[in-house]
Design a protein that fits this description.
Number of strands: 18
CATH architecture: Alpha-Beta Complex
CATH topology: phage-related protein like fold
Helix content: 25-40%
Number of domains: 1
Strand content: 25-35%
Largest sheet: 6 strands, mixed
Structural class: alpha+beta
Length: about 300
């Protein structure tokens, strides 16, 4: 009998509408939704494939008495800082059989329904967003899924001026006003007058400040109206990932969050394995790269961060 050779190509079945263009929105939801980003606590730099130089240019001594000659004078210092993105991923395996007896509405014709896929996708995105919010501030490079956050970088930066470091304490509704005052006092005229100057505070500190306003009866707020998140005219930006008793004050364009190309829509996928390996599993796959960096550290006031390098 003559043997017949049949060529079988590997088939990848994507049982989700989160491939292609829609996946771009999905990644955006995960990486651009953290409160620090939504509230403007950092500036976002997109399309950072690996490294991006954060410009750090300083001038000094450029003004002199006028003469008839051209006399070059002054100092320009260029010391770019590098924002490096690291690769991260989500890999999950779901067995469809698990969902059949309990959630029939989530399963139809051998595959998850579109509504469940949408729900699962949103759930994954929200978990990734929560992870990135915490990593931006409290991340530790030695921990899986994390890079060094701003708190770690500022703790180890020997160039952070001692005058910019405000000793912290355990914040409460009773002391939050006084402690915010210390941050403003440490902000010299250059930092205080920077465009977009604001104080980044934790969610716990935000609650304490609202309680303090209510206790003071500011603008008859008490417990009825929304509190204004400003302190002596300076905006307070809630950054949920900040440690409870830490604050960071600076202008706009100093703190950066970098992301790889969000147009890579195939990075977020729900992959049905039944046509690949014959199993009844669905793989949830998400891949991205991100990282943080800041510019001139002398433009940053820290509260509650103990610098170990100076």
């Amino acid at each position: 009998m003559e043997k017949t050779k049949i060529e079988l190509a590997t088939t990848e079945t994507i049982s989700s509408n989160y491939a292609g263009a829609d996946a771009g929105r999905f990644i955006s939801a995960a990486l651009l939704a953290p409160t620090t980003i939504e509230n403007g606590g950092v500036e976002v730099v997109q399309t950072v494939p690996y490294k991006w130089n954060v410009p750090n240019v300083n001038l000094s001594g450029i003004v002199q008495d006028a003469t008839c000659d051209f006399t070059d004078n002054g100092t320009i210092t260029i010391a770019d800082r590098v924002l490096t993105t690291e690769k991260f991923e989500v890999n999950m395996k779901l067995c469809k059989k698990t969902y059949r007896p309990v959630w029939q509405s989530l399963y139809s014709a051998g595959r998850f329904t579109g509504s469940f896929e949408s729900y699962l996708g949103a759930l994954v995105a929200s978990n990734v967003a929560a992870s990135r919010e915490n990593v931006i501030w409290q991340g530790a490079n030695g921990t899986g899924g994390e890079f060094d956050g701003f708190e770690a970088l500022l703790t180890a930066d020997a160039n952070l001026p001692a005058a910019n470091e405000v000793a912290g304490t355990t914040l409460s509704a009773a002391n939050i006003v006084a402690e915010l005052g210390k941050v403003l006092s440490a902000s010299g005229k250059v930092i205080y007058n920077m465009p977009g100057f604001a104080i980044r505070i934790s969610t716990a500190a935000k609650k304490f400040y609202i309680q303090a306003q209510a206790a003071l009866g500011a603008a008859d707020l008490y417990n009825e109206r929304e509190a204004q998140m400003t302190f002596q005219g300076v905006p307070l930006i809630e950054c949920a990932g900040l440690s409870d008793d830490v604050m960071v004050a600076t202008g706009s364009g100093v703190l950066w969050y970098g992301i790889e190309d969000l147009s890579l829509g195939s990075q977020v996928r729900l992959l049905d394995q039944s046509m690949i390996d014959g199993s009844d599993n669905v793989h949830v796959v998400m891949e991205w790269g991100d990282g943080i960096q800041y510019g001139n550290v002398s433009d940053i006031i820290t509260y509650g961060i103990t610098n170990v390098a100076n």
